[in-house]
Each structure stands twice: as structure tokens, then as C-alpha cells.
Amino acid sequence: MTDGNDPGVPAQRDPHDVPAVASAPVRASVPPRPRLAPLGRTIGHVGLALTVAFAGLALGAGYWQVIRSPDLSTAADNPAVIAAARNVVRGQIVDRDGRVLATNARNKATGEPYRRYADRTFSTVIGYATADFGTAGLERSWNAQLTGVSNGNAIGDLLRKFRSDPYDPQKLTLGISSALQRAAVRGLGDDRGAVVMLDPRTGEVLALASTPTYDTNAIANPDTSREAFAAVREAASRPLLTRATQGQYVPGSVFKIVTAVAGLGSGRLTASTTFPEQPRAERDGLLVSGFRVNEHPGVPARSLDLAGATEWSSNIWYALAGLRTGGDNLAKFAERMGFGAPLDFDLPTARSQVTNGDGGAPGGFSDDVELANAAYGQGETLVTPLQMAMVAATVANDGTLMKPHLVTAATGRDGTRTIAPEQLGVVFAPDEAAALQVAMRRAVESSVGRQFTSGAKVPGVTTAGKSGTAELGGRGAPHSWFIGFAPVDDPRVAIAVLVERGGRGGERAAPLAGDLMALFFKTFPR
Amino acid sequence: MTAATASGLPAILGPIRPRARGRESKLLALVAITILVGSVSLELAPRVADPGESTGLSLANPLHVAIYLGLIGLAHLVLILSGRRMDQVLLPATAMLGGISLLLMERLPQTLVAQDVGPWKLGLGDVQLAWLVLSFSLATALAVTVRNDRWLRLYKYTWAAAGVALLVATYFLGDEINGQRLSLSLGPLSGQPAELLKVILVVFLAGYLSEYRPLLVEESTKVGPISLPPLPFLAPMVAMWAIALGLVVVQRDLGAALLFFTVFLFLLYAATGRPGYVIVGVILFLAGSFVMYNLVGTVQTRVDIWLDPFKSPTGDGYQIVQSLYAFGRGGLLGTGLGAGLPTVGGNLPIPAVHTDFPLAALGEELGLVGVLGILGLFLVVVERGLRIAASAADEFRALLAAGLALVIGTQALIIAAGNLKLIPLTGITLPFVSYGGSSLLVNGIIVGLLLALSDRGVEPPPPPKPRSRLARLTGRVTRLETPASARAPLPPGGGTR
Amino acid sequence: MDPFLITVWVVRLLFLALLYLFLFRIAKALVGDLRAAAREPGAELGRLIVVASPGGEPVEGTSLALDAIATIGRDVNNAIVVEDQFASAEHAILTFRGRAWYVEDLGSTNGTFVNGSPVQGVSPLGFGDVIQVGQVRLRLERPRSDRSRR
Predict the structure, then answer these.
(1) 3-state SS, residue B454
(2) Nearest neighbour of A46 by CB, restricted to B322, B330, B402
(3) Which one-letter DSSP state was computed for residue B468?
(4) Which pLDDT belongs to residue B484?
């Protein structure tokens, strides 16, 4: 304002300030634009730039404080959650029949509460909650609800600020049946392995067993916490690894079901697809780009259809089916069932993969050889038992995949919140699923199929399934696999069983699966 | 509002001509009410967890609040008595920030800072209050006494030399803390020279740029499509760049380096109006950052933490992850003053909460609403500073005022963005809010200088008295037709007396 | 709902509300300032020709453009800075109010003179009048009609 009075810098005056009438006659003789922009204007630009930057700050604050606030506030290592865990008596955890699996006791000396667990077979599911060694399992992933920092309802969380007791610890109800869980752990015995049982119609987890188990009571009890935790952490068998969700295994022939889903879903295969080149290949091996795919012994040298190939577990038919389906379709349909990324689940999960995904061929395969091998479950394919249970459940539920979940209800002061079944998507059509159901039933019930899946059949109930024998190369027994479901026309249970180094699928995994499904029908007879 | 001489006072007070500062009075009253309410809120927080017998309202540490508000009132009185026509928003805005700082420091564990001064054992709140008092006293003293800028204007190279000497002295004589030599002790006093360097730098740049402003826009050198000024005048830019890099390499002080360089670029643009300079500067900055990332371990760690702090939430990324948790816990409305920041096992989640992360603590306790309010306060300070600059009497003062305001604004921006994981975290203070004597005193100097610079001497004339609509209309018409003669209703040379 | 907790939250929200009230008051003031700034005419309203200046500052013969307010004095804060030992720091002020110029002495030691007579209070000025501040003499002239000089 006053700088116009300074005789030294008359050029500062903005030429536009001149009234229109006065400047009009002299416009023609206006000298070239002053070289210096007025200071007021450039300072204004700087102010504008800083204001924009502050607006960016405001957006950043909004992002963290509003959009990300719920998940940040319930993160397991958030001091608010940890502090709540120290002050609050955690909610109980019960099984589907209301049997208490986790409750609390009080330290006689300090009066601080600590956790008591009823059943060691749940150690790999529920995990532990301690003051000094953190949390694991459901105790970790549902920490905010168990301590009552959050009850899953944003408005309720906000209103609880106005109450004198801000914590609302929730009681969690699991879909797991203790009877099935115990039988599964007992059935795995001293072997390392995993069993996953799902209700294919809802995605409820009925059993989620991983062996070896460990003593969570010893870890939770402050008197024995330190030694017990050290022992478990150092153990060579790695009990802290929940094999059902975090173990990545070569699938062997159970992966053929994924190939069949992709082939049927993409329309490249039908129930009656046959390959004329199969008979000769059965004798001489199948040459794929110079690599020879060999059949396991005993498969007849003739053209098989989907059901025949599945009951015989023909590597050559499935290799040809995989090549016809194409890598992109195989990867796409596998992805629809959850492959390629960690599953959205109550516990941490490992990623299942069809291929490493770094190859140049469609779907990320490096070439046809890898695709052909992957199609019958070798190649670079790695899966978790939970993922394979989801594959079985997809076929059982007529092609529709439900989201697997452990917790079915959370009960707090304000009542019970039920976790509703959630559909993850339609993977393939019901009629295509029906063709695969028939094939998988033949694999369990036909005279040919029984050779490979002995003991999987549930007496008096139609049963479908597929065994797998995952060759690991080198010496040592293969992983033993079985996936299946029953009854075939109205499936109520889907299962995946893996026994590390358990031998052939039919020897170890299939009979265990049969027993567990039989127990299911005995425990829950309609 | 005409200045009145205090006729009844002794001769020494003769020249005192008080001038009312109505706007400042009203705003300061609002500040006082806000801080009092905040103090009540703070006092209530522990009683929620542990309900006592009383349910009445009272102040948390009323003595501190009284001292602080009393001091602000006193500063206001001194400004009134000085009779200068200074900005009336700066003091309230910074007083609000200081008040929030006081509330925050009262609320944090007092053992974060423990000093024994004579018989008194002082905690965080006490020490911060002392620094706030000194800071605002300094601001007021400068605002009242600085009536001449010659000492700043004429000796810019001396100032620059003093600044560099200060840096060198810190490097050789400084106290080493956490591998960084940032503070310098002089007898019982110790301080961080980089804080003072901010002001010195702005003084030097304002002097240099206002003197060579016309030359800097010459286009005598062309490099490809970019026109550059005569090369010798690029030297200060290169020197600034070198000083910034030197700060990083030698002192590992990323925050100060980033602040200096950003303020420098802002001022360079303000002086020349050339976006080209900014582009060249940003390129230089990026190149320097790249080299630093590969050469200096600290830089690399900071950037890696920034990219993914959740990779090691208990290791390197700990502080920033905890900061984000704090923001997340706050949500929209916050937990309320004094009710946030649960301690775990007696430890604060964020060890440097009082120096580097006050915004995270405020974000938790005042929520997004509070954070936006605090950012708004900083923006107000910047706006006032830039307005003072825009209406300054000459270029030196314009650039000086703009530079001082930009130091505050940019510093708040850098540390707030660091806390919010928008840029890599650098350890600098949030002006007026963070704990720290050097920082508060230098902020006081900045406010004092801005107030002094805002004095425009006299008040504008009262707006023209409303005339009749007809007269206004005719006046406008005649003015449009004959702009010059219309303004000369009096005969040339005609005496009016 | 606990009544004590409701009180606590009322206080907490009141604090935030007051913070925003404060910002709102400032914003209103800032907008007012901006309006006032926009109202101020940028055009020249008159000129001072330096008739005599023994101190050399301002230089004799120069023409100083005037805005609506111009202060004269030794202090650098003045719009027109005079280097003269007989001038006060804040010596005099020229204001353009409505349609005419006025001069007011700011309580200077040696006084302000118009055409040789001392100024009492606020007195109107005419074009061609000579103002004396210390030993510096300045003549008020009409604004130049050609204002796009240079």
C-alpha cells in the first residue's frame, strides 16, 4: 500500500491498476512489461502454495483419523488395546455348543487376571494372550473385541465414550465343534499335519486342527510364562505355525480339482471331454515341449472322460486338460477361489499359488511344461489346507464360494452380534459343479476310485472326494492329501486333510477324512 | 482512536501515547476463555477413570494458567502503551498455540524433563511455562523497541558470517546427543544454534535478494531451454544448497536442512517471480536427496521407515507407527484433553512426544477437529506474516517479513507432515507447541520482529463521510469524464486559509 | 449415561468449539482486511515535489507519488523518509479524505508549516501549497494524468 510512495521502485505499480478511461489513450505507447513482478503478487503465490500444502496435511490427518481410525485403533500392538488387555477381564471364547474354551483366572499374588484354556487341541486356533509375550491366534486377531476396546459398531464405540466403563469385552462363539476338533487332532496323532472342516453352505469352520499342538495354559500363566514361551518358540516342530492356514504344501493330485473347476468354468472342458492322444501317451508318456509327463502305474491305455480321469487320477488326462484350459484360465479360476493372496480370515494365512507368477506365458507360467505339471498338482504349485478345503466347499456348494470364518457370534453388554455368512463369489455354474461332483463321487465310491481313496467313504452317506500324493523329490514319504464333501446331493460338510510325510493319499489322509466325516454325521444328525 | 498524551503522568512517561487495540483485546479474551476451559477439561480427565468425591469443575494447575494468561495480558498492555499501530492478530494466534502447548505439557508425564533450579524441582510443565514466559516477553520487547531495521539491513554479510560461525562452533564444541551435535553449551546455558540460524538466514536472504533483485531476473546465461541469470548471482543458491547438504552430512540434521532449503526457494521465488528458479532448486534438491540417500545411513533409514513403518512396528518404525496409532485413536473428536496416550507398563508409547510428536498427542486428545484447528492457527500466523510483507514499505522489509512467516509455516508443515507419514520424519519442533527453549525463544524473536515490521506508523483516514446519493452519483460521473480536474476543486495555488 | 461423563464431554467439546470460534473471529477480521485492501485505490492521488532538502534525502527535485496516506518523518517506517536533524521521527501526515488533501502535525518538536504558517490540528491543503518539515520543503502537485509512466 505504501510501497507506491517509494520513488525508487515505480515499476512495482501494477499497470492494471490504472483506471480504464485514463489508460485507454496511452495503451498504444505502453512500454514493455516491467521485468519484475510485484512483490505483493509473488508473496501471494507463496502463501497460496503453503495453503495448498496445509490442505494436504488436513487430508492426511483425515485419512489417518477417520478412514484408517477403526483398524489402527484395534491393531493388536496399539497401546490402547494393550492397556485395555491389562485392565480388563477378557471375554470368554466358547465352541459352537457353548463349551468354554478360554476363560480367566486371577493371579493369587498380584490379583491380575490371566487366561485359562480348556483344551490343548485349540492351541493353534485360539492362541494365547499374555501380559509379557503378546498375543497369538484368535486372541490376537480379535484382541480389540475380547478386551472390549471395540465391539464392531462404530456408533456404539463412539457412545461408549460417554459411559463410565468404556470397555465392553465380548464373548466369542466359534463355529468349531470340540468333538470334531479333538477327533481331528487325535487322528493326526504324532504326525505333523492339518485338518480343515467347513460347512460349505455358510463357510463356518467346523474344525481347524494343526499338529503339533502346544500348551497355551503354561504360556498364559504368569508363573510359567517365560520358560513355556521359550520352549515353544525354540521347538523344531514349530508348533506356533498354524499349519492349516500358514503351511504351504505341494498339493499333488488334489489340485486336479482346481484344474477341473477352471476347465469346466471356462468352457474348455465338459464332463465328456476326451483326448484322442491319451491312449498312446499312456504307453509312451506325454511329450510337452520336449518334457515327458509320465503316468503313475495302473491307468488303462484308453481315452478317459472327466469322471474316468478323476477316479483313475490320470496325470496325462489332467495335463492335457490343463493345456487345453490354458494358463490364464487356470490362474483366473484359482484366483476366484482365493489363490494368489493371503485369505481374508480370522487367523493369519499364507498365500496359495498356482505358479510363481514370474513367467512370460499366460497366467504367469514360464511355459507349457510348467502348466502341464501344475495341472496335475506338481510344478510350482503350493497350497494351504484351508485353501484346499475352500476348493472342496466350492464344488460342494454348487460352484458358490462362501467366506470361511471361525467366529460366528460376539456377545457383549449390548447383546449378540451374529457374523452372517458371506458369499465370496460364484466360481463356476451349478451344472458344471454337478459334473465335477459326479466325478469326485466316482473317485470315492467306484471300485476303481476306492483303490486310491480307501476309507474315505462314509457308511450310509454319499461321499465325494479326491486324494493326493504330493511327491517332494528326493527320499522320504510324500505328503498325504484328501479333500472331499458329503452328502453329495446336499453337502453339509467339506474337508481337507493333510498329513506331512503321511505316505500315499489313500493310505493316511483318506481314511482319516472318512472317520471325521462319519463322526460329523454322528454328532450332528440333522 | 486518536493518540492521547498522558498529561497527568510524570515527565518520563510523557512520550507514552497509548493506542487502543480493540481487536487484539477481544481475541485475547477468547484465548483466555479457551485455555481456561481446556484446563478444566484437563483436570476432569483423571477423575473419569477414578471418580473422586467432588464432581465440581476446577482448573488443572491454576497457578500456571494464571501466570501464562497474566503474562499475555501484560504483553497486550505493553503493546497498547507503546502506541504503535501493529498487527492485532499475531499475538492472539500465537498465544493460543502457546496455551495449547502449556496444556499439553501439563498433561504429559512431568518427568520427561526434570531440572533442579535452586530449591525447586521443575518438571516439564514448569520448564515449558518458563520458556513460554521468556519467549513472549522477548516478542513484546522486540515489538516495542525495534523501530529501525538498519542494524539488520546493513550488516547482512556480518549476520551470515555469524551464522556460519555458530554452525562451525556447534560442530566442534557442541554436545553430542544420539550421535548428533545440535546443541551448544555456554556456561549453564545450552541451546540449539540451528534454531537461531533460521532467523539469521532469513535476514541475510532478505538483504541479499532485495539488493540484487533486479539482477537476478536478467537472462544472460542460457543452458539449453532454461534461461539463467548471470552466473555469479547463482552463487548464493549453490551456497544454500551446500549449507543444507552440509547440515545433513555433518550434523545429521535433516529437518533444519529441509527447512532452510524450502524457505530459501520460497523467498527466491517471492523476490524474482521466476518459477524457473524453483524448478532448478527442486532438481538440485532431488539430486542432493538421491546422493544423500545412497551415502548417508541416517537418510536411508528415515526414508525406508517412511515407505513402510509397519514393516518393523517395534523397531525402526516404532515412533511413527505409534504416532499413527495415536492419530487413529483420536478419531474425529478425540479422547479429550488428558484422556489420551495410554501408557503401557509405565512407558510412553512415543518417547519424543513433547519435542517431535506434539501433534500426534494433540491429534489423539483433540481429534481431527482439533488438528484442523491447530493447522488453521498456523495458517493464520503465516497469513498475517505474508500480509505484513505485502504491505511493507520496502523490499527488504517485505522479504524479511515473508521469510520469518515462512519459517514458522514451513517448519509446522514439515514436522506435521512427518508425524502424519506424508514425508519422511525429520526431528524439528512444532513452532510454539513443542517443548524446547531455543525453539520457543526464536519463535518469540520472529513474532517480535513481525510485530515491529507490521507497524505502519499511522492509521488510515476514516472512510469518506456518506454523502447524499445524488452527490455520490454526480461525483462518480465527473470523475469518470475528467479524472484529473475532478480532483482539483480548489484553484491552483489558492490558499484556503 | 453417566451425568458426570456428559459434563466432561460438554467441557471437551466446548474447548474445541471455542478454538473454532476464535478461528472464525480471525477469519472474519482477515476478510474485513482484504475488503479494506481492495477498497484502497492504487492510483496516484497527488505528488510532492521536493523543493529544498539540505540533508540530501529526499533528493531535491524528485517527485514523490502519494497514496491516500503518507507519513513524513525521520523514522524509516514513514512513507516519506526525510534526513533532517530538525525533523521528528514521526513528523507529519498527509491524508486524502474524500476529495481533498489534509495535513496534520504529529506532535513534532519543530512543527509543520504550510506556506510558512504553522499547522494547527488537521488543516486542508491545496495543490501548489508548500509544506515544510524541518528544513525540507515539499510542494503538493496534482496527480499526473499520464499514470503509466515508464
Answers:
(1) helix
(2) B402
(3) P
(4) 40
Mean pLDDT of the B98-122 span: 82
Which chain A residues have a beta carbon less than 8 Å from that of C9?
Answer: 161-162
| Nine-digit cell string for A171 | 464373548
- For testing contact with chain A, the best of C30, C67, C148, C149 (most A CBs within 10 A): C148
Q: What's the maximum distance between 2 C-alpha atoms anywhere in chain C?
A: 82
Tell me what pLDDT residue A480 has: 92
For A427-468, the pLDDT digits (tens) are: 999 999 999 999 999 999 888 888 888 888 888 899 999 999
Q: Would strands B175-177 and C122-125 be described as parallel, antiparallel, or unpaired?
A: unpaired
In whole angstroms, what is the distance from residue B473 CA to residue B479 CA? 10
Judge whether C68 is closer than 8 Å to chain B, CB to CB: yes
HEC secondary structure over A384-412: CHHHHHHHHHHHHCCCEEECCECEEEEEE
Mean pLDDT of the region B446-464: 69
C-alpha cell at B374: 491447530
- Best C6, C67, C94, C150 member to test A by mutation, with max A CBs in 10 Å, is C150
Residue C17 phi, psi dihedral angles, 5° rounding: -65, -40
Question: Which positions 59-78 of A are in contact with B (Cβ < 8 Å)?
Answer: 60-62, 64-66, 68-73, 75, 77-78
Distance CA A260, CA A271 (A): 9
**pLDDT tens digits along B281-293:** 888 888 888 888 8
C10 in contact with B, Cβ within 8 Å: no
ipTM, 2 dp: 0.84
| Bridging pattern class, strands C80-81 and C63-66 | unpaired
A-chain CB neighbours of C150 within 8 Å are 10-11, 31, 34
Asked if pLDDT for residue A179 goes beyond 70, the answer is yes
Question: Could you tell me the three cell numbers for C4?
Answer: 458426570
Question: Which of B41, B92, B494 faces C11 most closely, judged by CB atoms?
Answer: B41
Position A177, amino acid: S
Instruction: Determine contact, residues B129/B435, Cβ cutoff 8 Å.
Output: no
Query: What's the pLDDT at A514?
Result: 93
The per-residue pLDDT for A10 is: 37
Q: What angle do CA B278, B279, B281 make, to 5 degrees?
A: 60
The answer on pLDDT for B480 being more than 50 is no
Percent of chain A with pLDDT over 90: 43
The residue type of A208 is: L
Task: Read off the C-alpha cell for A347.
Answer: 487367523
Q: Phi/psi at A162 (nearest 5 deg)?
A: -90, 5
Q: How many CA atoms lie within 13 A of C49 on its CB side?
A: 12
What pLDDT is recorded for position A67?
A: 86
pTM of the predicted protein model: 0.69
Alpha carbon distance A307, A488 (integer Å): 15
**C-alpha span between B385 and A65 (Å, rounded):** 30
**Selection from B446, B409, B449, B451 nearest residue B430 by Cα:** B409
Radius of gyration from C-alpha coordinates of chain C: 24
Count the residues in chain C.
150
Q: Do A72 and B335 touch (CB under 8 A)?
A: no
Closest among A124, A255, A139 to A194, alpha carbons compared: A124
Exposure string (b/e) for A499-519, b if CB count within 10 Å is 16 or more?
A: bbebebbbbbbbbbbbbbbbb
Tens digit of each residue's pLDDT (9 = 90 or more) over A309-333: 998 888 889 999 999 999 999 999 9
At B357, the amino acid letter reads F
Residues 6+ apart with CB under 8 A from B358: B101, B104, B430, B433, B434, B435
Q: Which of A26, A50, A143 to mutate to test the interface with B (most CBs of B within 10 A)?
A: A50
